[in-house]
Amino acid sequence: MTARLNILKIEFKRAWKRLPQMAAGAVVLMAMLGTIAFAASKVLYGESALGRISVGVVLPKEDAMAEMAVRMLGSLDSVGSLCDFVFMEREEAQSAFREGRVMGIMEVPEGMVEGIMNGSNPPVSILLSAGGLESAVFRELTLAGARTLGSAQAGIYAGNQLLAAAGLGEKIPQMEADLNKLYLSYSLPRANYFRRELVQASGEVNSLQFYGISALVLFLLLEVIPVSGYLTGESRELEQKLRLFGAGPLWHRFTKSLCLGLLLFAAGLLFGCGAYWMGFLEISWEMAPALFFMCFLAASMSLFFYECTRSLMGLVMFLSAASMLLLFLSGGMVPAVFLPEGIRRLSPFLPTSTMMECGISAVLGRADWAAWLKTAGYGAVFLVLAAGVRRR
């Protein structure tokens, strides 16, 4: 036991001497990753995702019913919130479309309203610009409108056939009027039937906090690079001597990970103080254990990578590539909701995902024991793997 404690003291002293290098690297990484996180949050939720859709409407001459129908269509919430209908002559609409002043042309045929009522359904010609999000949205709106109208007409036609087969043809006009009234009563105020709920792609935290947590995870992993020399220095002969005193490779790897984790913890506190000073973070006691387990896992992973490469250059290259890849797969760069389904299934089992969960619990001021224990478990697994690789 005395030998083990002496090893722990020696490793702590060695780690303490690396603190200036850690501080210098932390300042550089904080500036770089903070800028990236802020920019990424703005990209995810910018000022607006979709612009207004200007549509030129060409009406048949002296058709008041068609104009009234188009104006009523434009007053619906689902249409009026996105589209601006501009009534034009055919030549004017074509010129505006070529010049880009309107994104589409909707040409209404003569007798459109009468055709809807009698079932002839004259087609409405719609010309859209190729590509663009606005064009795709307007196309979906028109298709949805056509499907809604088709459903309503199907009900009316079915009622007509039923009454005709029953010999009650005289009641068809009254049935059509009742069904039209019923369909309009449900379709016009349909927005009242939906409960609006704001959903964040970043989950329980806002976009800036989400990318701040991602930046912290990447910061802890890359912060090992300035002090990577701390992981070197042991010879096989020294380890054999230590084993004789009861301090095997597993204990030695543990002391290294613990001391490196404490260095990362100090750097993480600096990161958190910067976020608090900028007003992005509120201090809570849950931050300390969450940050400690994150640092312990980052240190254990880095030690395992070093044991696999056995060179500082290999560690730097492998750690950089692995950090970027793992953070991407865990949804830290692009939120998991935007990733393919296969990656979303893999994401919860990645070590960086548990680090993200710890960061989220810290930001929310919530004691997430499951995430903390899972992170500690991953750290222990990497410790055992590092000791196993070292034995070879």
Protein described:
- This protein is mostly helical and 392 residues long.
- Helices cover 67% and strands 5% of the residues.
- It has 16 helices and 4 strands.
- It has helices spanning 2-16, 19-44, 64-75, 77-80, 90-99, 112-118, 133-165, 172-187, 207-222, 236-244, 249-277, 287-309, 312-329, 341-346, 351-364, 369-391, and strands at residues 53-58, 83-87, 104-107, 125-128.
- A 4-stranded mixed beta sheet has the order 2-1-3-4, with helices on both faces.
- Helix 12 packs parallel to helix 16.
- It is elongated and about 105 Å long.
- The two termini are 25 Å apart.
- The model has no long low-confidence stretch (mean pLDDT 75).
Globular, elongated, flat, extended or rod-shaped: what is the shape?
A: elongated
Q: Overall pLDDT, averaged?
A: 75
Secondary structure category: mainly alpha
Q: Helicity, in percent?
A: 55-70%
Task: Give the topology string: H per helix, E per strand.
Answer: HHEHHEHEHEHHHHHHHHHH
Low-confidence stretches: none
Largest sheet: 4 strands, mixed
Q: Evaluate the radius of gyration.
A: 33 Å
SS strand fraction? under 5%
Arrangement of strands in the largest sheet: 2-1-3-4
Q: N-to-C terminal Cα separation, in Å?
A: 25 Å
Tell me the number of strands.
4
The total count of helices amounts to 16
